[in-house]
Amino acid sequence: MEKGDNVCNPKVFEDVFKKNAETLRNFMYYKCGNMDLAEDFVQESFVKLWDNCSKVIEEKAKSFLFTVANNLFLNNVAHKKVVLKHQKNAKPSITNESPEFILEEKEFLVKLEKAIQDLPEKQREVFLLNRIDKKKYKEIAELLGISTKAVEKRMSQALKTLREKIGKI
């Protein structure tokens, strides 16, 4: 195989699968905490890779898979939030907060989610693993196969970017 082969070649696709399936499954399991759901995300990611095989070279396949899986995860989370929102709306809720405060809080959360989604993939994955999954930097480094210093740098960049975007809100 030559450098730059696209993944339509079954041998290249198989190599990409062997190199990435387990790591991607583990990564998704750590994000969602559900092995069945993690395996669904991995399977769907590889299906999308195959559907787009002519556009993806072997060197970019891992990044493509992790981006697709992460987007599937984020879509799943967004769907769960919609379901919860409808469940909450079905029951009247009593709060001491003013309607203005509640509206501002909802708007802030939407902008925060957008800011997190707009982070570069590597920063977003480190940020979410740390802040959502409560993983320590060392655990994240082992999971992603990078140094703890790299995790620290990505987290620092993510926080800086979020502060800048949220500062504008």
From TrEMBL:
rRNA processing recorded as keyword: no
Boundaries of every RNA polymerase sigma factor 70 region 4 type domain copy: 110-162
Signal peptide: none
Stored CDD domains: Sigma70_r4
Keywords: Sigma factor, Transcription, Transcription regulation
Residue stretches in coiled coil: none
Domain RNA polymerase sigma-70 region: 17-79
InterPro entries, per the entry: RNA_pol_sigma-70-like, RNA_pol_sigma-70_dom, RNA_pol_sigma70_r2, RNA_pol_sigma70_r4_t2, RNA_pol_sigma_r2, RNA_pol_sigma_r3/r4-like, WH-like_DNA-bd_sf
Keyword Transcription assigned: yes
Pfam families xref list: Sigma70_r2, Sigma70_r4_2
Family indicated by similarity: Belongs to the sigma-70 factor family. ECF subfamily.
The protein's name in its UniProt record: RNA polymerase sigma-70 factor, ECF subfamily
Organism: Tenacibaculum polynesiense
